[in-house]
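Protocol step 6 of 9: fold each sequence in the batch and record its structure tokens directly after the sequence line. For illustration, a two-sequence batch is reproduced in full.

Sequence one:
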Amino acid sequence: MKSCILMSIFIFILNLTLVAQTPVSDLILLKNNKIPVTTAYPVRPFLIGKTSKPVATYNPLSYVAGGAMSIYQNVISPQFSANCLYHPGCSDYSKMLIQDFGLFKGIVCSADRLMRCNRISALSIRRFETDNLTGKITETTNYYRW
């Protein structure tokens, strides 16, 4: 009986120390903290940028690949709740690969990345490869330079 009373007092005191904070109005918190306004799903740019080579800019296949990637990123991808293991995400990384290496090698390297982006291959990831803040692996296109 005494142990129950002592345990109750201990939990009560512990609870007071954990939740003891100075009361501040929500409006004051919002006024003091500048919260950036962002959209839930960012609209991503087209595949080919303005600094690309003219051959890549006016190639019809570039427009088809860029349009397909844009539709996937802005319409289909927000419907999924999956998280990518890597940073940048797989579709953004595919755009970077296609811009750096061209359409054929970019698609082949993107397929390799997509095969590595699953929970089974996450078992072989070493802890020092991950970013401590995000918990994701940061990868650049230099991974595919031969």
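Sequence two, same batch, same settings:
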Amino acid sequence: MEFQAHDLTEPLGGRAPDLICFSHLRWNFVFQRPQHLMSRYARTQRVFFVEEPIFESGVEPRLTVQTHDGVQVVVPRLPDGVSGEASLDLQRRMIDELIASNGLSRYVLWYYTPLALAVSAHLRPAAVVYDCMDELSAFKGASTELPLLERALMARADVVFTGGQSLYDAKKHQHPNIHPVPSSVDVPHFATARGMADDRPDQCHLARPRLGFFGVLDERFDIALLAAVADSRPGWQLVMIGPIVKIDPDSLPARANIHYLGPKTYAELPAYIAGWDVALLLFARNAATRFISPTKTPEYLAAGKPVVSTSIRDVVTPYGDLQLVRIADNPLAFVRACEHAMAERPEPRMARADVFLQGTSWDRTWAKTRSLMTSALEKSRVPSPSMSATQDAHGAS
């Protein structure tokens, strides 16, 4: 089925239902799948993006709401020392107050994290969407309750999306209405890198060649491979962009030719990529990366850069199979792949990439989720959640 990117202001079968999105990712962390989709939904309906709570000393329980890209970003703020069932009970009351104060009578619950079911299972939405963008239970520090809550969420969801094909293959038997919806790319945004001549102040002094990576530096990042590449080619400048999360910063290799430039905004990324000779996907092969589908793959291609990646399944297929990305895992093979990437004529590769990207956009991805959500709304008659799912969710703390 083809999902066209129609007018984003077109009503969703009459009055569009409001949308309450529960996310484990904060809106201002890294601009990725939730932000792309929710900002588009905000053009047709009210969207409330509910983050996980922030615990602060000396505060009264309250919600703060700020508007970003048309989305109302909602943050529960709780006093330090509140935990367990008391914390969950406060959050349930806050969600109830959010719904009442905004007059939400018909709404969709959209989940990025099953943990949020513990504070929302009592609600009666018009439909439930589970956008399973990652296998969160495989991530470092994941709650042991995630598998149980995900089963409860699967039981309640009207439609399920997965962030890539490999995650779909792993979960396709767990729900009757599940669909692979790989993350997409804003081609015009990243294509601006192709014509940029000005370099960014914090990388303009670096020699060439430059090989770069942007993304979260966490347990999925291949630290050993980065160190090996830097050591084997001391003349290469390796530019790492992104926040360091869940790992000790001191565990990252310190070399004269590795440059950690920290987080950058989504708007800044094309200007940094423009100054690179090769774009890298430096992912370790472990439980946390088994089902990932890196959004940066098509973004690198749209920027016109050659890409070298480790053998992440959703990168190998389709990008490696179509010879859009070079795949290598051990340091020697990875270095050679980078050398070949820098030696090739860019025009044929860019032409192949452009053909592939023609059918790819966040507008199309949004349109697909919207169509599937509309179908779920039409079929749904506001069923009550199963008692077991509700009990599981309320029993988790």
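Proceed to step 7 once all outputs are recorded. Observation for sequence two: The longest helix spans residues 84-101.
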